[in-house]
Each structure stands twice: as structure tokens, then as C-alpha cells.
Amino acid sequence: MGKANETCDTGVCKAQVCTPSQGFCQGQDVKTCSANGSSSSVAKTCTNQTCIAAASAADCKGVCAPGQQDCSSNGVRTCDANGQYGAASRATATSACMGR
Predict the structure, then answer these.
(1) How confident is the model at residue 14 (pLDDT cuts 50, 70, 90)?
(2) DSSP 28-78
(3) Where are the domains of the chain?
């Protein structure tokens, strides 16, 4: 008999690579774990949003991808890990946002 974090098939037990039948994030990919925890597949890739994992699921949320930047009131905003833009920093004379 295998351990709680192993999957066994025809007498061979292997460590699970993910929690069986649950969604999770891997980078910006939303992945779904197989029923036995031995593999996963990409359900979708987040574009201009952030992959955020909850207790047993993951999904694309927010308005931007982590590290993505945009201009706001002549300043630069950077997207955080939750898919939200932070406060705009001041634009400099060489900033791409200056004068926008």
C-alpha cells in the first residue's frame, strides 16, 4: 500500500506530482491535475490577467499580468501578484509615459 502522497498502479507506487483532480497555477498557466495525481494538463493560459490559486481551484483574475506596466497620469503603474495595478510612480524625462 502506498503513502498518502503516492499513486499506485499495478503494484508500482510513484509520488504524486500534484493534488488529484484539483486546479493550480504554474506560471501563467491554469493547470488541472489528473484524478490520480500523476500528471497535469494546461486548462488555459492567462493573458493580461494573473493566475491565482484558491483552496482547490485556480483561475485567471485581475486586470493585468504580474510585472506588466502601463501609463497613468504621466506615471508608470506595475501589476502585482494579484493582477492589480499599484500606484503610479513619477515619470522621468526619459519615461515612455511622459506627456501621455
Answers:
(1) confident
(2) TEEEEE-TTSS-EEEEEE-SSSEEEE-SS-EEEESSS-TT-EEEETTEEEE
(3) 6-61, 63-100
